[in-house]
Amino acid sequence: MKQTNISVAMATFNGERYIREQIMSILTCLSSADELIISDDGSTDETLSIIQKICAVDERVKLFYGPKSGVVRNFENALNHCTGKYIFLSDQDDVWHENKVKVVLPKLEKYLLVCHNANIFNQETGEIEGDTQSRIGCHKTVFKNIIKNSFIGCCMAFRRELLNVALPFPPPEQIHIHDWWLGLLALKYGNVYFEKNCLINYRIHNSNTLGFKKTNFRFKIKKRINMLKVLQKIKKQEVL
User: Maximum distance among all alpha carbons in the chain?
Assistant: First the structure.
């Protein structure tokens, strides 16, 4: 299979409200040699119909059917179909800025993973409510990111070598969410760059799968212990 330069991995589920705007913003950033890989986890609204219509007119968009096992496994399915040298993650409901790829791509020549900033766009009010890095920080060690995760998937891009240690994903109950797992592995085996420019509008709304939702203290402690355990089991490999 001929390798594309950039693969964008997107996981969808009942995202009809924003999916077309998001896809169009992504395609504007890509060249004819790139691809948008979409894994749909069993949408029951018009999401699949919208994606299929775009696939029919743009061969860069490729639709696959997910395992119907939640967001972590759905993203894993998308990543398994990516062929690019560089991989960008995308949610189904944000909007990419036109300069996103141009800003991030040069950094990936030097860094294993790049995590950029994003405007926090409140869909209900129509206002920008700050930025993600101000909200969660940019922690540059594994330990600090176990305490407080700095990685938001829709802001992340990495070299495909990272998948050598990241896939297959451990069970979701062990790693909780894929972006945290990928970020920690990049810190452990390579290097990470936090880009200060806001390169997407990160949309928050009533239907967000994760967003900035709060969890109880006991669960926070449990998921950090689980993440440490599984991280320690991974044998060191050369990924650079």
Answer: 49
Q: In order along the chain (240 residues), what is the average pLDDT of each group of 10 residues?
A: 85 97 98 97 98 98 96 97 98 97 97 98 93 96 94 97 94 89 95 98 75 67 85 65
pTM: 0.91
Give residue 239's identity as a one-letter amino acid code.
V
Asked if residues 65 and 43 have their Cβ atoms less than 8 Å apart, the reply is: no
> Which two three-digit tokens encode residue 116?
């950029």
Measured from the Cβ of residue 68, the count of other Cβ atoms closer than 10 Å reads 11
Please, where are the H alpha helices in the chain?
Answer: 19-29, 47-57, 71-80, 100-104, 132-136, 142-147, 163-166, 172-175, 178-189, 217-233
Pairing of strands 95-96, 192-204: antiparallel
Question: Which amino acid belongs to residue 49?
Answer: S
